[in-house]
């Protein structure tokens, strides 16, 4: 069942990345130019590339940092927001992407600006982008976009940033108080995609500001979410074909790799904030989801090329291997392996 090795196969990262950025989709293990690129994938790829360079110190990963950061620079529009969809011929399909795209870009900018291995010249370019984007944080409506922004800004220092984190986290808590109802402990009347970033961001906000309310809401909502997504033996994210509406049952499929990654990152954050070992155990289960400890008992990693399949369907594996899946797997691999290595020092 277990398909991991101690050595990361990075071949597919370079197969899926060209001189523009990381392509969005594939047909099986063939990168598919038809669907072009998306900014939010390249934002998360920037985080991945920095994590790879920090861990392995290889110049090829630093080259990726430049590639993905340059993509973000090209994606930012005159207003400081970000376009998302680009065709293979480098033509943008829109003037402005979603708020969630904006939030993921802020996550990447904050992470990369705070990373000791980001070249100084790159940092100056990232700071230029961040300064143009910052005025938009206070007018966001999407709770996930707010959450990604908090996660990114929590990497940075400064009184103004701390205040912005505090105020943004307060809006999430107010939304939580509005929708929380009896056994339903969540920010909306439905659980959809990217659920874990909401409690994750509030743990981050607590660690920056020391506001206990943020941790209380984070842990209560995280326990509610974990009660839905963890079986005794394995992690099972809510399926994207139907999600989970209040009072209903969670959709069984499709299970997507990004959910395992964000579940892992959230549970590790909760472990560091509370020192409760159960969160570390859950983070490991999220990681093992990729390896076959899942509802289908099948490995999602193509050991031949290093790609990650796009999820679990009712019939089995979705054999395509897109950017989001690959990035989610690689970030999970690096994060959990570094965490376990540090624990054994």
Which keywords apply here?
54% helix, 12 helices, mainly alpha, two-stranded antiparallel sheet
- Largest sheet report: 3 strands, antiparallel
Work out the radius of gyration: 19 Å
Question: What is the oligomer described by this structure?
Answer: single chain
Q: In DSSP terms, counting alpha (H) and pi (I) runs of 4 or more, how many helices?
A: 12
Strand order of the largest sheet: 1-2-3
> What is the terminal separation in angstroms?
29 Å
In percent terms, what proportion of residues is strand? Answer: 5-15%
Instruction: Sum up the overall morphology in one term.
Output: globular
Task: Report the order of strands and helices.
Answer: HEEHHEHHHHEHHEHHEEH
In total, the number of domains comes to 3
* Annotation, overall tally of beta strands: 7
Task: Note down, in words, how this protein is organized.
This protein has 345 residues and is mainly alpha-helical. The protein has three domains: 36-139; 142-229, no CATH class; 230-345, no CATH class. The chain has twelve helices and seven strands. The chain has helices at residues 11-16, 39-56, 59-75, 99-114, 120-133, 143-153, 159-179, 197-209, 212-229, 257-274, 277-291, 323-343, and strands at residues 23-27, 30-38, 85-86, 190-191, 244-245, 311-312, 317-318. The protein has a three-stranded antiparallel sheet with strand order 1-2-3.
């Amino acid at each position: 069942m277990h398909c991991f090795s101690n050595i990361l196969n990075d071949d597919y990262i370079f197969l899926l990345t060209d001189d523009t950025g990381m392509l969005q989709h594939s047909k099986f293990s063939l990168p598919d130019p038809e669907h072009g690129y998306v900014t939010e994938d390249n934002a998360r790829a920037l985080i991945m590339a920095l994590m790879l360079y920090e861990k392995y110190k290889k110049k090829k990963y630093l080259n990726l940092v430049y590639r993905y950061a340059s993509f973000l620079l090209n994606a930012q529009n005159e207003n400081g927001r970000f376009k998302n969809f680009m065709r293979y011929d480098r033509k943008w399909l829109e003037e402005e992407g979603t708020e969630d795209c904006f939030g993921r870009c802020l996550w990447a900018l904050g992470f990369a600006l705070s990373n000791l291995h980001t070249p100084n010249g790159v940092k100056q370019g990232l700071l230029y982008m961040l300064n143009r984007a910052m005025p938009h944080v206070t007018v966001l409506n999407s709770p996930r976009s707010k959450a990604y922004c908090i996660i990114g800004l929590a990497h940075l220092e400064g009184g103004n940033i701390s205040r912005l984190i505090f105020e943004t986290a307060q809006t999430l808590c107010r939304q939580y108080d509005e929708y929380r109802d009896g056994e339903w402990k969540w920010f909306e009347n439905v659980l959809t995609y990217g659920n874990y970033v909401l409690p994750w961001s509030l743990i981050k906000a607590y660690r920056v500001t020391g506001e206990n309310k943020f941790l209380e809401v984070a842990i209560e909502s995280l326990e509610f979410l974990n009660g839905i997504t963890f079986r005794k033996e394995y992690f099972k994210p809510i399926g994207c074909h139907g999600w989970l509406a209040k009072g209903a049952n969670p959709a069984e499929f499709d299970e997507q790799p990004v959910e395992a990654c964000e579940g892992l990152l959230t549970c590790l954050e909760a472990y560091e904030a509370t020192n409760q070992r159960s969160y570390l155990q859950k983070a490991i289960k999220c990681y093992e989801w990729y390896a076959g400890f899942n509802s289908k008992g099948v490995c999602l990693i193509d050991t031949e090329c290093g790609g990650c399949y796009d999820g679990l369907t009712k019939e089995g594996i979705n054999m395509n291997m897109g950017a989001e899946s690959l990035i989610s797997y690689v970030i999970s691999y690096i994060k959990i392996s570094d965490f376990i290595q540090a624990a054994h020092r």
